[in-house]
Amino acid sequence: QVQLVDSGGGLAQAGGSLRLSCAASEDSVSNYNMGWFRQAPGKDREFVGTIKWSSSTTLYADSVKGRFSISRDNAKNTVYLQMNSLKPEDAAVYYCVADPTKISYSDIYYTRSSSYYYWGQGTQVTVSS
């Protein structure tokens, strides 16, 4: 049973930056597909990005591409989401996710919340305009 602990959320001004962290309980960061989703009040859960276990290839939603980046530190068993040029519409609860599959799928697979078995508790990001 993998446990994911999200942290790093808070208040940022529009145009500012935040870095979210996701600490995993097992040696899973390098062996799992690791990603981030977000959910704003009254909206559906939305894919943000993922880093694939096999190649470290990253995939991002169009809404964050060029502003957000995902990285991982295998030694610390931690995944990061660096968020730059924040916009008010980025405000949401952000969830770290993990998928243990070793099969390589098309990109659409990684954008689906149902593809991820493990979820963090979420961390709130607020962006002031």
Order of helices and strands: EEEEEEEEEHEE
For the record, give the distance between the C-alpha atoms at the N and C termini, rounded to a whole number: 40 Å
Q: Major β-sheet, in short? A: 7 strands, mixed
Shape type: globular
Structural class: mainly beta
Q: Give the proportion of residues in helices.
A: under 10%
β-strand percent reads: over 45%
Poorly predicted parts: none
Radius of gyration, taken over Cα atoms and rounded to an integer in Å: 14 Å
**What is the total tally of β strands?**
11
**Could you tell me the mean pLDDT?**
94
Number of helices: 1
What does this 3D model show about the protein?
With 129 residues, this protein is mainly beta. The chain contains 1 helix and 11 strands, in the order E-E-E-E-E-E-E-E-E-H-E-E. It has one helix spanning 107-110; strands at residues 4-7, 10-13, 18-24, 33-39, 46-51, 58-60, 68-73, 78-83, 92-99, 118-119, 123-128. The strands form 2 sheets. Strands 2, 4, 5, 6, 9, 10 and 11 form a 7-stranded mixed sheet that branches. Strands 1-3-8-7 form a 4-stranded antiparallel sheet, with no helix packed on it. Strand 4 and strand 5 form a beta hairpin.
